[in-house]
Each structure stands twice: as C-alpha cells, then as structure tokens.
Amino acid sequence: MAVTGDTTQVPAAVHRDPAEAAHAWWTIGPGEGEFRSEPLPVPADSEASVRTLWTGVSRGTEALVARGEVPASERDRMRAPFQGGDFPFPVKYGYLNVGRVEDGPAELTDRTVFALVPHQSRYVVPADALVLVPEGVPPRRAVLAGAVETAVNVLWDAAPLVGDRVVVVGAGMIGCAIARVARGIPGIGVTVVDVDPAKERLARGLGAEFLLAPPQPQRRPPEADVVIEASGSGAGLELALQLAPTDGEVIVASWYGSRPVPITLGADFHSRRLTIRSSQVGAVSSRRRSTRTTRDRLAVALRLLEDPAFDLLLGGTSSWRQLPEVTAALAAGTAGELCHTIDWSTA
Fold this sequence. Notes:
Strand content: 25-35%
C-alpha cells in the first residue's frame, strides 16, 4: 500500500467540529468513502470515552468490505461489534482500535486499551468492551491483537502437540501470526509455504522455515503432522491437501467471501482419508468454548504481543486523512499483505 506518513492534501472533506465530535470513516461505495462527524455522548457510569491512537487494517476482511463483496448470507454474522450502517454500503467498519481512555472507570483512565471499534478518532463504549494493553506492548503493535487472536483460535482448532511438524500455507499476516504463535510450543517445527520468494526473510525472522510454492521435488516440506491453509486462494487449499498426511486434516483459516473455490476431491483425497475443517474467529474454538470466552482469548493474544518479533507483521503507516487512498487500494487489490496502520495522533 503506497501511502505512508502524513499528507498536506486532504482527499476527502473534513469539517471543523466541536471537541465532543469524532471523525469517523464510512465506506460508501466500491473503493470510496467519506469522513462523517459524529457527536459523542457523555459516558455513563458503566462507559468510557477513548481517544484513538492507532487503528489497523484487516486486509482480507476489509478488502471484501471495500469492494462490497460480503455475501448476503453472511452480512449478519460479519457485523463488527460497533459497526455503523449495513453491508454493502454505506458502512462504518473495522475492529482493530488502540486508544487511550480519557474518561471512565478509575482502573481504565489514562490506560491504553484495545477495542473492536471502527476507524474513528474518538468513541464512547461500555467499559467492559475494552481490554487493557499490557505495559510491555507498544500501542502500534497492539493493533495486531486481531491477527494474533485469530492465530490462537486456529491453533486451538488444529491442536498441535509437543514436537509436531506444522506446515502453514500462505505467508500473509494471519499465516505468519500462526507460525509465530506455533513456534512457542516446545519442540515444534514450523514451515511456511508461499508463492512469493520475498516472504522468506519474513518467515525466517519469525523463526519458521520457508519453502517456495509449489515445492520442488528436491525441496519439499518435512512430512507434516498439522497443515493449516491461510493463503486465501484455491491453489493454496489444493496445495495444503497435497501436503496433508494420510488420515490427516487441513485446517482452513482463509475466508473467501463470495468467491467460488474449486478443489480436487478426486485423486487420492478419499484413499488417504483426508479431512477439511474450517476455523473461524467469530466463535471460540469448540475445543475451548466451555472454558474460555472471546475476551479471554483476546487477553491471551495481547499478552503474546509482548514478543517484539511481531513487529515484522506491521506494514506501512498512513495518516487518518489518507483513508480514502487506503480504501481505494483495498478495493483495487493493491494493498500490502501486512498490517497497515492508521495514525490518529493529529485527529
């Protein structure tokens, strides 16, 4: 995504507002949006007022939103907790927000928090919708909480064991987050497979081996115990099936939106008794659902972000005023694969 730093040119109208108003970004058509001024209520006793420091762009999901490609059947399930409007347009969407509490319960005031709130400069939400960011996690890195939370859920679904060999197909933000979290399991071996040779440096920086897809006969991944598909492509899913062990399963972390994904279920799919199983962050993995809440899972993710290696997953940064270019790049498919961050410090 070729937009970094601040800009002196304002590409969308932003009007001077009273202090109690917020700038909020709304997507109003494919690749198009506008800033809207939204008045903020005085927080009640059970609420908190937060000034946004950073938001993150969840590339896969937000690209579908920017293009208006959220399937009609999934529009209710796809709603973000504090979303405004409805799919396809106009919609205020996003769920990676890190801010500082200005007014609220004493234990939260002046603390840095993470919330599932869209791209906007300030907001008032119930205090229990905020999760404290650990002191050892820089605010910008904390926007990765959504990606790491997804990785935690995928690994709860995949359930790798001590000493297992894990293969992750796809070196995007989610695939790399999965690889780094998995590396924390004792004795684990992680190999990341991707079509882009430039991803090798990233994978190795996260402690994983790297193989270029499709693997050549002389350089194939070690026999896998666990295969996770996070490529977002049908070709990646096909490759994951090829790499899965006999009697094994492929955990599908990708979400394809409304796109059809043809796969080959002939050949040795039946003779090797393979299983394809989805993993989706909207609900806690069934393996942990009786003992963990989504808030528990998010807190785990934020603690894991004390690991500075996750900084490798942070991509470019844009001023909040550049959200028009960011949204256009998402819709056009030219956005970078790492987590693009939005700086709200001048809002």
